[in-house]
Amino acid sequence: MGGVVKALVDALPGKRFLDLRLAENERLPGDVPLWLMTSDATDGPIRHALEEATTSKRVAAFRQCVSLRLTPEGRLFTDAEGTPSVYATGHGDLPEALATSGLLDAFLARGGETVWIANLDNLGATVDPAILGWHLAHGGPLTVEVVNKVGADKGGGPVVWNGRRIICEDFRLPIGFDASKVPVFNTNTFLVNARALRDLDFSFTFVEVEKKVGDRKAVQFERLLGEMTVPLEPRFLRVARDGRGSRFLPVKDTDELARRRQEIEAVARFRGMIE
Description:
Blueprint: E1 10-12, E2 15-16, H1 17-27, E3 34-38, H2 43-53, E4 59-63, E5 66-68, E6 86-88, H3 94-101, H4 103-109, E7 114-117, H5 129-138, E8 142-148, E9 157-161, E10 164-168, E11 184-193, H6 194-198, E12 207-213, E13 216-222, E14 234-238, H7 254-270
Parallel strand pairs: 3-4, 8-14
Antiparallel strand pairs: 1-2, 5-6, 7-11, 8-11, 9-10, 12-13
């Protein structure tokens, strides 16, 4: 975000996104781990920040996958020195990267049952006993938190495909389909059975994405975590996106952060992340 690792940006004065997540984790009872998926670019700074911020053994980082960018013509994209341009291949990396890290196996060995997945910048998506209870009560492997669409909101939403409920991204909907008919969309917050996640045998689709690198166009291929709803039967839970109980406070850039700071402070105070 603005050339800075988002986890290390001040979400509130003197409180980075990382600090607020650590504060949430410290207040949880028992031995609840906190795992941060890093990229090739963010891994070093985040690990260094963790070393300075906490001595908790239940906090760990694991690195996602990487690949090489291409030019629009399909050639290897290189910088001015001729070095190939590396990028992280999307949040759909999480199942593979987490399984490879060994953290999930250790969690299962300790009796862990549920993994809660959320974007670090969405400070509304905290651990909530009521939501965890709802997830465990329905007995399925996967819960997806969704919110009402507002205005021109776009994002993957729940649809029925081949007789199954899945999250489908807007760009994958049939041509001419009115996406506004789907009143909610995916917040990228999931609760998933830990064993089902570990044993997931599914090849995620790589989606072609055009990016601007400097003043040049590049092509990269990314995986989207919402596609996890294809092999794992989901249940959808509509959650609040307004007020101090909001579970959806995404921050994409510095302008959005400035607009949302008052909301973030209200939610962080309500959830006990700050006094």
